[in-house]
Structures are given as C-alpha cells and as structure tokens.
Specification:
Number of domains: 1
Largest sheet: none
Number of helices: 8
Helix content: over 70%
Oligomer: single chain
Order of helices and strands: HHHHHHHH
Number of strands: 0
Protein name: DUF7847 domain-containing protein
Shape: globular
Radius of gyration: 21 Å
Strand content: under 5%
Keywords: Membrane, Transmembrane, Transmembrane helix
Pfam families: DUF7847 (PF25231)
InterPro entries: DUF7847
Length: about 260
C-alpha cells in the first residue's frame, strides 16, 4: 500500500509552484478567484447576511437569475481547478492544453457531482421519511431519532467529502467515466481519512485567516483613498487574491498526494 506523506507533498508543492508560478496563478485568478468575487458582488446584502447566519425560517427571496449565476460560477471554478490539476500533474503541458483537457473532462466531473448530490439527497430524504413514520407512534421519539438521524446524515456527508477529496485529480488524470472515477477516488483515500482531514482543516484555517487579514488591511487603505465603496472593493480583491494563492498550493499538494496514493 502506498504511503501518503503531507510533508513530502508540501516540499514538492513549494518547489513546483516556485517553478511554474507564471502558469498557475493567472489560471487561478481568472477561473477561480475572479468568478467568486463577481458572484459576491452580485449577491444582495440580505442574501449575504443569510449566508453568514442561515436560518430556515427566514430565507430571503433569491433575485431572478442569481441561482443560474451561482451555478455557472461553480462550474467555472470546477473548470479552473481541473486546469490547475492538469498543470500540476502533467509537467510541460501548456496552459492552452490544460484548458482544453479541463473542458473535455468537465462533463465527467459534473456527472460525479450529480451522483453525489443524488446520494446525499436520498440520505436526507430517507432520514426524513423515518422521522415521519416514527412521529405517527410518538412525537418525542420521532424528535429524538430525527435529531440523531440528522447528525448521522451530516456526518456521512462530511466523511464522504473527505474520502472523495482526490476526485478532481482522478478525473483529469484518467479517461475513466463517472462511476469509475468515484470508485477510484474513494479507493485512493482508504486509510488516510484523518490525515486528509487534518490537512484540509489547516488549509481552511490558513485561507480564512490570511484572506481576512488581507481584506481588512487593504480595505482600510482603499477606504482612505476611495471611501466605503473603495474599501469594500479593494478588500474583496485582496481577499480573493490571497485565497487564490492558498488554493494553488492546496491543489498542487492534492495533486502530489494523488500521485503518492496512485503510485
């Protein structure tokens, strides 16, 4: 069984990013950071407040076309991430070749997402049906069991998201179809759940802290020059730029971890 080393992946990622930065960062900014920033600018204030603190009983109305814009943004970010994985996994490939390969493999990634979403929906629907059946016997029992089932469903989704963290490199590095890609990604992470979980937690914390700090500092400078609107825009751009840098290192590290597991 292959050994997955986070330290070795980090060393290889630092060397690779230093060597190929002129290829990686423009793709990340254009296809990962910029679409997210544009969507953020399109999001109404009431929706931004709800996303920060979701409440089931106070869901604001979604503007016409916003759902479509969100879907297109997600697909564009997936496209960009596949291109970054192509650059990381195939040294010597050009940006144009990486983008063409990403476009060719994007339908497979979308297909895997639909399968996963369908499975998640089935789990939650099943939990809801069990709760309804139990409520016919006892509302107290139904509430307790429903709470346990809800936590179980969330834990299952969380577990599956970690086990499928190598799905993108599997998709871009092979010609496998939807189900074969899912099975391959699941198999490669067997025995490495906690190691990958710790890695992703650290990356998430670093991205949040660095992005927030950049947003605040640059936002203050922008506010001194162009007022409140300038502060908001400058802070958003700085946060997106820093987050894209962290994401590049994370994706390259995932590519190296995939190579370790695949070898």
């Amino acid at each position: 069984m292959a050994t997955m080393s986070i330290g070795k992946a980090w060393e290889e990622a630092v060397a690779f990013v230093a060597r190929e930065a002129t290829l990686l960062f423009p793709v990340a900014l254009l296809f990962v950071a910029l679409p997210g920033l544009i969507l953020q600018e399109m999001t109404p204030p009431e929706l931004q407040a709800w996303f920060a603190a979701p409440k089931a009983d106070t869901i604001p109305a979604m503007p016409p076309g916003f759902g479509l814009a969100m879907l297109l943004t997600i697909i564009l970010i997936w496209f960009g991430s596949l291109a970054l994985f192509a650059l990381a996994l195939r040294p010597g490939i050009s940006v144009g070749e990486a983008l063409r390969l990403s476009f060719a493999r994007l339908p497979v990634l979308i297909g895997t997402a639909l399968v996963v979403v369908g499975a998640v929906a089935a789990v939650f629907v099943g939990a809801a049906l069990v709760g309804v059946v139990l409520s016919l016997a006892s509302k107290q029992l139904a509430a307790a069991i429903g709470l346990l089932l809800g936590f179980g469903a969330v834990a299952l989704v969380f577990f599956a998201s970690i086990r499928l963290v190598l799905l993108n490199p599997v998709v871009i590095d092979s010609r496998a179809g939807v189900m074969d890609s899912l099975r391959r990604a699941w198999a490669l992470t067997r025995g490495y759940f906690w190691r990958l979980f710790g890695f992703l937690i650290i990356v998430m914390l670093l991205s949040t802290i660095a992005g927030s700090a950049a947003q605040v500092i640059v936002g203050l400078l922008g506010g001194l020059i162009a007022g409140a609107e300038g502060a908001r825009l400058a802070g958003g751009l700085a946060g997106a730029a820093v987050s894209s840098v962290v994401q590049v290192y994370m994706l390259v590290m995932l590519a190296r971890l995939y190579r370790q597991a695949a070898d």
